[in-house]
Structures are given as C-alpha cells and as structure tokens.
Amino acid sequence: MPHNHHPWMFLRDEIDVLEEEFDALFDHKNHAHDPVAHEAEERILEEQVVTEEQSEAELAVRLGPRKEFSSAPMEIPSLAIEPALPLKEALRQSAARDPFYERVFEWAGRLGVWARARYETGNEKQSDFFRIQVNAYLVPVKLASAFGHEAQEDSSAALIAAKEADLAQVYVRRIRESLEKLQAASIIATEENDLLREAEHVEKELKEMRGRWSSRAPWSGRNSAL
What we know:
mainly alpha, 7 helices
C-alpha cells in the first residue's frame, strides 16, 4: 500500500537535520596529527560519494537524459552551515510516521551516537566506527526519500524509490560489515551485539520493501548491485 499518509514534506525538517549533521562530518574531520586516521576517513567518505554518483548515473540511463529526477544526491558540503534543529525537536514536529521508518530513524540515531563516541574516545582510531557513523546518517535519509517518491504514484517515481531503497540497503550492509569486523576482532562487547542483530533485521525488511517498489517500476528486472 502506498504511503500517501507520509508525504515527503512531513519529513523535510528531519532529513535536513540529518543532512546537516552528515555535512558536519566533512567539516569536522581533521586528524592532521594522525595521517592514518585522516586517510581512512577520506577513503570512507569517498566510498559514499562514488556510490551516490553510480546510482545517479544508472537512473539517468534508465529514465533518459531529459527525464527529471531527484534522489537527493550527496553534495560537497558548504562550510557555512546553519545551526541544526535538535533531532528531538525534528522528531516532535514530524507528522504521522511509518513505524518502520521511525524504528530505523531511532536505531540509526543510537548507532551513530555510539559509533561517534567509540571513535573519538579510542586510543587507536578504528575506522570502522567512523564508517558506521557515516552510513548511519544515510540510511534514514534514503528511506525517507524512497517514501517520498513512492507517494508520487508513477512508474518513474517508483523506480527512483526502488533505487533509494537500494542505497539504504547498501548503507545498512556496510554498517553490518563493520560491526561484524569489530565483533570478530573483539573490539565491541558482547552486550553490544544487539546493534548487529538489528542491522540484520533492518536489512531484511529493506529488501522486502525494495521488492514492492521495484514491482511498480519500469525495468524492474534489471536491478544493479551497487
């Protein structure tokens, strides 16, 4: 069932907050005293940019060069960022919320805060904590964008929704991969394993939702693996 009760504008403030906080990762990454950490951060951020650009290019091929579409591509951030609305206030201002989206938003928020704290307080920078933080910001952004395009109820919008769900899956998979790596190295405690289990649940549900959107999209049988 299309999520017509979740128009994109209801989530705009919230997503603006997430995008501003994500931009802050670019602005505040400054480990000049630690070249290894700096290089790792650059590599992780570049990974995201390449993924977004690849998705945009695939959409352009499928929809045609004259077809307008918007999948909220990643932009090079400006240093002049307006003060962000507190996340709790953004949550309060949101209208009716999809239960799955709300759970993903809250999970990603907890995960991002946890990963940032572990990354910044560790004696040795573990790049996987930074990678988790980066991807945690992007998952709810992509999910909200998918809902917004789904509400437009046309085949092209459904294709974009499916591609946004693809990206959300990619970012959850990267979170899971980094959590598994930290777990295997005994860097995260046993009691933190619930973060990994929830990542697996989110990834599974996203796959199911993506199937629904792709069934309404043209060229749905030609899915790409980002």
